[in-house]
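Running co-folding for zinc ion.
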Amino acid sequence: MRAGYIENHGSVENIKIGDVDNPRIGNLDVIIKTEFAALNRLDLFVVQGWSGLNLKMPHVLGSDGSGIITEIGPDVITDLHVGDRVLINPGIGCGQCSQCLSGRQNFCSKFSILGENKNGTYAEYVKVPSRNVLKIPDSYPFDKAAAAPLTFLTAWRMLVSQAQIKSGEYVLIQGGSGGVSTAAIQIANYFNATTIVTTSSDEKTAKAKEMGADHVINYNQIPNYAKVVFKELTKKKGIDLVVDSVGTVTFNTSLKMLRPGGRLVTCGATTGPKAELDIRSIFWKQLKIFGSTMSNYQEFHDVMKLVLNGKFSPAVDKVFKLEELQDAERYLGESNHFGKVLIQI
Ligand SMILES: [Zn+2]
């Protein structure tokens, strides 16, 4: 089958398009003929590699996807049928350990992500456990279905389960143009929060407003935006909850903007993983810092229900063909996109 894969770690130039073996179905798996896949920054990290990541090569990239079931494993007991239109939950627990059996799949010691340590969705066919697919209505388009899962399940767990967002709060989302951030804007609005988004250009400012952000700050125009947030936007109250997956560049400013007792939630560090902190700023203001990664299956179903019934709509920036995967990954790396970058398989 045709696929986008790597044989060695390195740069985006290492991504190849060519033929690889079709996936072999396991007893509890389904095989999906992929229609659309969506890029995530995780792709770029996987291409680079990190110590401890030992992939079996060739490794097919891609975490998000949608398509049609073509095969169902013999031991699958669900209402799934060949021909069903589905989207994929990219977070895969082992299904057998105490964490998985108690519904905490993202704490499973064998937890894996499609495209990270399992062959992913940039391929004509992808194999996943049957419990990782969700049927989509006939009227729901495959492109949006591929754009939603990873970012919405991540943002939902961050804001709802971990940081416990409440109605009326001031929520500030750092770097509001990525997939997780555009999902976070919509989720914060759903909970009637006042949303403040930081971003890097006038074009992205306009799009973040379209997405429902109440206030958008272009940090290239207002480098000292923490003051504006404190004095003008929150009327000297401070932010209740900061969503920060930007990392090194923003982390200290994020902590500074929080009100006493405020919370910060992080799921990533796109500008780098290290920041020098003044620990006093944490205990003086009695801040809470939450880490979050992926979601459990319940959270996935809770947020996808809201996606599929139209309450949330994933932002789609641009669609590339599978043959253009290198260009698509380069485009993602340049960070000029707003929302998801898709691959039509
Ligand atoms: Zn497990």
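Result summary
The first strand starts at residue 2 and ends at 6.
The longest helix spans residues 149-162.
Job closed.
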